[in-house]
Design a protein that fits this description.
With 342 residues, this protein is an alpha/beta fold. The chain contains 13 helices and 9 strands. α8 runs parallel beside α10.
Length: 342
């Protein structure tokens, strides 16, 4: 008989956290589950730890990658192996709270018409609780709207296995890290029929152990830029295969905001300037210009304190906007002068 849950844990160089992650699963009071750990070519002691845990518990299945193939491929391979009725993802540096499998099982049993269940989590170590919000309209279309966008997170949901297998089969088998959740979330949302929000904390999401600590590094920021571009292109390819003509402007706008967060964090001014000059290689001029125009107009219309205005107008966003929009203003003035001459 197939287990009720398949818990998929991709693990890459998480020797400091993987024992805690696995323990948070094995100590659950609800026992009808299988645990699939995908060792994604770890070069630290992760493999030894999970092998030792596997020898102690028959619920654990290990998939080993001979080299790092990315979190996306690790999830794909885990999904392909899963036998449970429902699938849950847990990153190797995160962990579940107590008795959450029982709570998830109860929610599913009481609401069998739903195929995705989204739950709350705690950002650790800050202890900030984040609870899910219902879709504004449709989860899939929300990703492409200019309004509130759902968080592109794969790891805070329970999925009907039939749905998630279908979704991952529709994805490209490519190396992608950092922005794999954006790509995967959009494809999964396309196949989702009904999603239920569970206003309970299930997962502890560890801040400071992965990509969130690398944004100040120039080379890793370049990697992130490339990953963002790849995610957008993969979404575009998926939409094309489905025969959908949907504008990606809103999605790319949000991705640009995320990229600028990384760029602004650079400690070295030269690195900051280099990264700004690289933006046109990853985003089209329309997206960049609209973003900067929006920011500039926001600053013009501020009705807040004088100190706040000074802080905003001294920000890198504002200075970047003024710098890149200067040629456009000059062109506008030339057109006006030409009109007066004529």
């Amino acid at each position: 008989m197939n287990p009720f849950f398949s818990i998929i844990v991709p693990a890459f160089n998480v020797e400091k956290y993987i024992h805690r992650a696995v323990s948070s699963i094995l100590t659950q009071s609800f026992r009808d589950f299988e645990l699939i750990i995908v060792n994604d070519g770890s070069t630290d002691n992760t493999a030894n730890i999970i092998n030792e845990l596997s020898n102690q518990n028959k619920k654990i299945t290990i998939i080993n990658h001979s080299k790092n193939e990315s979190l996306h491929i690790a999830r794909m391979n885990g999904v392909a192996t899963a036998n449970g009725e429902y699938i849950v993802f847990l990153d190797g540096d995160d962990y579940f709270t107590e008795n959450t499998f029982s709570e998830l099982h109860q929610s599913i049993q009481e609401n069998p018409e739903y195929d995705v269940f989204e739950y709350g989590y705690i950002r650790q170590p800050a202890g900030e609780i984040v609870l899910p919000s219902p879709p504004v309209s449709n989860r899939f279309s929300d990703f492409f709207s200019k309004g509130n966008c759902p968080a592109p997170t794969v790891w805070n949901k329970v999925y009907l296995t039939a749905l998630i297998k279908k979704a991952f089969l529709a994805m490209e088998r490519v190396y992608i890290n950092n922005t794999e959740d954006t790509y995967e979330s959009i494809v999964i949302a396309f196949y989702t029929k009904k999603i239920m929000m569970i206003k309970k904390v299930i997962t502890n999401y560890q801040i400071g152990s992965g990509v969130s600590t690398s944004y100040k590094d120039f080379n890793k920021t370049i990697d992130f830029l490339q990953s963002v571009r790849k995610a957008a292109d993969l979404v575009k390819l998926f939409l094309s295969k489905q025969g959908l003509n949907i504008s990606l402007d809103a999605l790319e706008y949000r991705l640009l905001e995320y990229v600028l967060y990384y760029i602004h964090s650079q400690k070295n001014t030269e690195d900051f300037i280099k990264l700004l000059r690289l933006l046109p290689d990853y985003f089209n001029a329309k997206i960049i210009t609209e973003y900067l125009v929006f920011l500039e107009e926001s600053y013009k219309n501020l009705t807040i304190s004088h100190k706040r205005i000074i802080k905003m107008t001294n920000s890198k966003d504002y200075r970047l906007g003024k710098f890149l929009l200067k040629p456009l203003r000059m062109a506008k003035r030339l057109f006006r002068m030409q009109e007066k001459i004529n």
